[in-house]
Structures are given as structure tokens and as C-alpha cells.
Amino acid sequence: MEHNKVDTEPQDSYDDQQKWVLDSSTDSRGEIPLRAQTGAWRAALFIIGIEFSERLSYFGISTNLVVYLTTILHQDLKMAVKNTNYWSGVTTLMPLLGGFVADAYLGRYGTVLLATTIYLMGLILLTLSWFIPGLKACHEDMCVEPRKAHEIAFFIAIYLISIGTGGHKPSLESFGADQFEDGHPEERKMKMSYFNWWNAGLCAGILTAVTVIVYIEDRIGWGVASIILTIVMATSFFIFRIGKPFYRYRAPSGSPLTPMLQVFVAAIAKRNLPCPSDSSLLHELTNEEYTKGRLLSSSKNLKFLDKAAVIEDRNENTKAEKQSPWRLATVTKVEEVKLLINMIPIWFFTLAFGVCATQSSTLFIKQAIIMDRHITGTNFIVPPASLFSLIALSIIITVTIYEKLLVPLLRRATGNERGISILQRIGIGMVFSLFAMIIAALIEKKRLDYAKEHHMNKTMTLSAIWLAPQFLVLGVADAFTLVGLQEYFYDQVPDSMRSLGIAFYLSVLGAASFVNNLLITVSDHLAEEISGKGWFGKDLNSSRLDRFYWMLAALTAANICCFVIVAMRYTYKTVQPSLAVVADCGDDVETATGTNNTSKLT
């Protein structure tokens, strides 16, 4: 059924806004949702619940993947790190396809259902690879080389999980954010908190994965861990389905690529026409006519694209609305294209942060493997991947302090509903990632020196507690930048592309994994050409990770300078007012004047 906005008299608009959700969403029956019965935290909690189990499964596999590849599949360090980065890269780039399908065809709820089913298929195959005799890694407890059948089944299983993650991640997070209406002041504030608490739930899943699940993998068995992950995922999927009556739904809007192409074609066709200085002379629908989202105000950047909304002949009897969309676009469609173009430099200059973030699940874990992980006074040995829990704890603590302490103080100081702008938050996290790489370089040099001093006694290794600072500081960086990127890409994309927006955020990490592989290959080759010895040997003691970390620190520092320049010139989305003043505020709460907001990242 087509969802139309409620026609209201001015005196009734406030009451209707409190009773009904007027943002083009529907309830489970396809009708306009009642605010008191749908959405907000009553719905978001179901969604955060299944995200907990998905992150439990993903990090239960990813954080111990290097260990699995080196101990079970007997790959060397460089090959294991590359395979981990390839899988991580594919997993975080697949959401681009999943987000497109969700926004254009299946809808976010439908995509979550399909993706979770594929995810479960991967977990089931992973479990079977440990219990079906023909798929087991080895016939005996000790073996030099795993069976090919197990290797094939394992990689098929984890790449099925990649496909499932591709649909699950962008659709679920944006579906959760859809439960809060931007046009309602209270729910808009809830949405700003949603991304913080989403990440707190996410980190709870990570924390459980890298402590309980990783311990089970190392001490009891990978097969037992796979059974647990499958059961937890299936149970949370069932609970997610129970929440169906409480959700608010957005209908898929068709391919977002077609309207973008129409804007470019119309602008090129009218390239010789003058563009009016008064944006009110450009073609736009009224709030009553536009029922598929929110109208955007015209901005002053990329003025060439405004020609797509220029009405060629105002004396014609034919109404502008009846002209071909390939010849005449609305201001909103033009602004949506501008938003996507403006995101390109932001996306590019966050890749360096993504490269730093990938170290936590690859090289950081490999460092932990060869360090002393005994707990003083006991025989208990901490699994290497469990050190990743320090990042999860750091994120939870930082997000809680930021949400409960810093945001209220910053709101009063800046007058910004968010406390600081989204890009300021991202930039702060980048600075912490720089500190994390510097700390990692210093600690690795200390570990290498310690190993040389005690090379005669192989049992003498540096305590893994020395790795704690780099994990904790990188967790603070994630709390600022990763959460900021989620909010930025969801908030600033066109309303019809919000699943793709989350996919754009994830693609930063996916592309960064491939960039990381490239940096490893190039730096290792150059080091070998210059000094005769590469930075990556067969083991860590014959490698020079400290120099690699210093290189990442230098690249991050240069990248931060470029990011600041781009962020200071960035223009945030401005939404036209309808029943209430609606704004996607980047710096300040926008008013009904339609003035564009420019980032003040200082």
C-alpha cells in the first residue's frame, strides 16, 4: 500500500505528530505507525539483541582466525595475515551489495531475514567440518598437513558468513535507526544515543566472543565453539522475529543509481543555461507532493549540478512535474547527488584509520601468541585472541563516559545537540589511532630487544601485559571514529540509501584490509631491496613490525592533516522543515531558514 502523509490542520499538527509517526514508515500491517506502540527503544532492543549474537559469531571466528590458519591449516605468518585480511576485506565490502539490495528491492527487514539464514548456513557448515569424519582436519590428533576437504569446507563456510554479514550488517543497523523519527525532537535525541548504545551492545558481543568463545576454541575445541555460535545465532534470530509487531518499516525505493544518473544527464543537457541565484526558482515538489522522504534545501557547492533543476521555459502550459526526469530533476535529487560526491574525500581520508584498526585482529594477536600470557600465581594461560577484549572494554567505557558525561557538558558549551560535530568526533579518534601505532612500535621494539637478550632461554618471553596500552588506546580511537563513521554515513546519505550508508562505513574497513595487504607487500619488498632483509620474516623475532608500525604512524599523521582540511570545507545535509523543524545537524541545530551548515573542525 502506498504510504501517504496525514493531512492535518495547523492546530492539530502537534497532536498528530505526537500520536502518529509521519516519516513515510509503516507498521507491520502496512499502515501509518502509532508512536506509542511501535519503534523507539521498544523495537531497537530486539535489533541490538541479534547484533550481539552476530558480533559474537563474527569475532569468535575473526579474532582467532590467524591462530586457526597457522595452527590448524599450518600457514606461515605472511600467508595467514593475508588470508585474514582478504576475508576481512570481502566481509566488509559485501555490505555494499547487501545495502543496495535492501534499499532497492527487499527492504531492510527482508534483507536481514535472508542474510541471517545464509549466515546460519555458514555456521552449520563450519560445525559439520569438525564432526563429519570426511571433513575433519586430520585423522589423528597430531598432523603435519590438514585434509583438503576440511580446508575447502572451512573456506566455503567462512565466506558464506561473509555473504550473510554483507546483508546483515548494513540492513540491521539502519533498520534499528529507522525506529526513531528524525522529525520528532525526543526521538531525534534518542537516535543520537542509539549509535552509542548499538556499539555498546556490539562490544558486549565482541567481549564475550574474545573471552568465552576464544577460550572454548583454544581449550575445549573449535567444533564445540561452532555449536555454541550456531545455537546462539538461531535463538536470537527467533527472538528478532518475535519483535515484528513493534518495528517500523521502510518500503524499498528502487535503484538509487537511476535518480543519480538522471541528475547528471539533465545537468549536462542544460549546461549552457544560466543558473538562477535564487534557489526558490529551481524545480522542487511541495511537502504534500513528496511522500517518500524529506525535502532537502539547496546548497552552494557543486553549482553545476543545480542546472538539472532549472526550469527551461516557465511560459509552457505543461507542468514541470510532468517533464521527463531525465530532463528536469528536483532540488532534493540534486542535493542527494551532491551529498554522495561530498562523501568521497571523507571516505578516502578515513582509510588510514581503517588500516590501523585492522592491526588489532592480525598483527596484535600474532604478537600475543609468542608473549607470556600466564596469569601471575596461576597456571591459567590467557588465549591470545582474548586480548582483543581490551578493545571491547575500552569502547564500552569510552562510549559510556562520552554519552553520559561529555555529551551533556559539550551540549551546554557548544549548543550542538551532539555536543561536537560528527567529523570532529571522527578526527579525534584518528588522533588516538596515531597514538596507538606509536605505542605499538615502541612496545614491539622493546619485545625484540628482550628476545635478543634472552635468546638462549626460549622460555623467557616478555609479558603480554605490555600489549595492553596499544589495545586500550585503539579502543578509544574506535569509540570515537567507528561510531562517528556509522552516524556520519547513516545521517548524511539520502534517506532512500541508508542501508548503503552503513555499507559505506563498513567498506572503509574492507578497503583498508586490502590496503593493509598492499602496504605489507610493498614495505617488505622495499625493505628487502634497501637493506637486504624484509620486515616480515617467518616468525615475529625475525620480523621488524616496529618499523611497520612507525610507517603506519607517519601515514596516519599525514592523513589527519588532509582530513582536517577536507572536514573544514564540508557542508552538512540541510532538511527543509515540514510539520516540525527537521535537521540532520552536523555542527549546530539547523533552523528553517535552509542555511547550509559548514563543518567547523578545529
From TrEMBL:
It comes from the Eukaryota. It is found in: Membrane. PROSITE patterns: PTR2_1 (PS01022). Keywords: Membrane, Phosphoprotein, Transmembrane, Transmembrane helix. It is a multi-pass membrane protein. One of its GO terms (cellular component) is membrane. GO terms for molecular function: dipeptide transmembrane transporter activity; tripeptide transmembrane transporter activity. The chain crosses the membrane at residues 86-106, 112-132, 197-216, 222-240, 380-402, 422-443, 464-483, 503-527, 548-572. It holds the Pfam family PTR2. InterPro entries: MFS_trans_sf, NRT1/PTR, POT_fam, PTR2_symporter_CS. Belongs to the major facilitator superfamily. Proton-dependent oligopeptide transporter (POT/PTR) (TC 2.A.17) family. PANTHER family: OLIGOPEPTIDE TRANSPORTER-RELATED. This is Protein NRT1/ PTR FAMILY 5.7. It comes from Arabidopsis thaliana (Mouse-ear cress).
